[in-house]
Each structure stands twice: as C-alpha cells, then as structure tokens.
Write a structure and sequence with these properties.
The protein is an alpha+beta fold. It is about 35% helix and about 25% strand.
Amino acid sequence: MIKLSRRHFLVLCAATNAGLLLPTGSAAAKGIGDFPLHKPIGEAHTICPYCSCGCGLVIATDENGHIINAEGDPDHITNRGALDPKSISVPQLSNSPLRLKTVMYRAPGSEQWEEKSWDWATAEIAKRIKKTRDDSFVSTIEVGGKDVTVNRTEGLAWIGGAANNSEDCYLSTKLARSLGVVYLEHQARI
C-alpha cells in the first residue's frame, strides 16, 4: 500500500493539471477549431410568480424568445440567488402545451368558449369596471346627522399578486384607490 501525504497529493494534483493545460501537437486537437464561449441567448431579470416572497430570477431565452433556463438572481435582495423547486420550474409556465395564448370568453348562459382579441378584452374589462363603479358608487354617508364625504364603491374589490414588485403594487393601489375601492387586499395575506 502506498502511503501518500497531503503535501505529495497536492503536488501530484498540480502537476496533473499543468500537464492538461500544456498545448499538444496532435492533429485531433488542432481540428477542433474555435469553440464558442457564449450561447446565443438573452437574459432578463424578473420576479418569481409563485409564492409571495418575491424572489429574483434570471430568465434565459433562446433566439425565438422561448424560456430555456431559470436561475436565482444573486444580486436580488430577497433570495440572493437561492431558489425553491417551484421557481426552477418557471420555464414550464411558458413552454407548456396547455398554456392559453389567446383570450377565451364564454358569454353568460353559453356552453361554448370563443376566442377574442386582447383589445376586445381590455375594452370589455374597462367597460364593466366603469358600469359597476357607477352603479355602486357612494359619495356621502350620514354620520351623527351630518353628511360625510366618503367617495367609495363597495361593488369592486382589488387583489394583488404575489409576483408583483413594489412599483407594480404602488401603481395598482393608486388605481384602485382612485376608483374608490375599499376592498383592497394582497394575495400574500389571504
């Protein structure tokens, strides 16, 4: 049995690594050519859409814009690069064959779904919000024999999402409050 000290082991490792780095004159090594160091991908920073922690993600996409990888953002204050198993599965959200890519609408009383445009859906949502707000708006209430201005609607509610960052939450809260919404909540607290 060969007895190998720690010092001899490190010397052998260094010599082996140095030997691997020496250029060789073999034809096989010269035939490899240039090896691309970068993959043709784009990277974007985003927030995980699952739980309410708001972990930062670095999403890698291919030339066609399809998500090919999700990693933790090491510079993000919440997770510092660490991810849970749900966050790692983010590419499945984009690449799933079950994912809807168009607006599907089912009219009241109908059993059939219809495909609609995003412009139609946006206009329809705005129209319904306006109608509900106008029908349920309360400008004053009586308190102790005096009218008190409240300017609110109890016919609408607003719920935020876990994946919203602070700026998104600020803007959505401002919109909800400007509509007079009093039932304003965030998904993380429910």
